[in-house]
């Protein structure tokens, strides 16, 4: 982005795909922090499985709003939320399988495997989010 085009839009934020990806990373970091807070707080009043489910749901809803508004500039709609939710359920299953293979087949320590899984799933989640939140009805 040129200095002149930034002045014309009134924003210094990067535009285009690189800018969207950077906003996706920042929004994802905020969302991860929120999910961790929900999970840790829920552990005070319930076991780890319902705490995880609650945190995942909170994270899903927060991600939809963050990505819609601050990453892709998409209007909120029930159809987009449904597509986003279905995609992230598929992403959860895929990431779980990748993580399990890394740990159980490749013999990578679980505390390390999660970082590989995140690295693999990050571009998948970006592309899926971008598709779910694309312009249109």
Summarize the structure.
The protein is mainly alpha-helical and 137 residues long.
Task: Write the topology of this structure.
Layout: H1 3-9, H2 16-42, H3 48-71, H4 78-104, H5 110-132
Q: How would you describe what is shown here?
A:
With 137 residues, the chain is mainly alpha-helical. It has one domain. 79% of the residues lie in helices and 0% in strands. The chain is built from 5 helices and no strands. Helix 2 (16-42) packs antiparallel against helix 3 and helix 4 packs antiparallel against helix 5 (110-132). The two termini are 29 Å apart.
Percent in strands:
under 5%
Mean pLDDT: 86
Q: Please count the helical segments.
A: 5
Structure summary, number of beta strands: 0
Question: Which spans have pLDDT < 50 for at least 5 consecutive residues?
Answer: 1-11
Terminal CA distance reads 29 Å
Based on the model shown, name its key terms.
137 residues; mainly alpha; 79% helix; globular; disordered N terminus
């Amino acid at each position: 982005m040129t200095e002149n085009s930034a002045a014309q839009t009134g924003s210094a934020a990067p535009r285009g795909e690189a800018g969207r990806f950077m906003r996706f990373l920042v929004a994802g970091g905020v969302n991860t922090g929120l999910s961790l807070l929900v999970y840790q707080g829920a552990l005070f009043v319930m076991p780890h499985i319902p705490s995880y489910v609650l945190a995942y749901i909170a994270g899903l809803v927060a991600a939809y709003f963050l990505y819609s508004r601050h990453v892709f500039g998409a209007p909120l709609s029930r159809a987009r939320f449904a597509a986003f939710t279905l995609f992230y359920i598929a992403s959860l299953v895929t990431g779980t399988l990748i993580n399990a293979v890394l740990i159980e087949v490749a013999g990578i320590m679980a505390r390390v495997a999660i970082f590989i899984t995140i690295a693999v799933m990050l571009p998948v989640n970006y592309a899926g989010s971008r598709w779910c939140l694309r312009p249109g009805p």
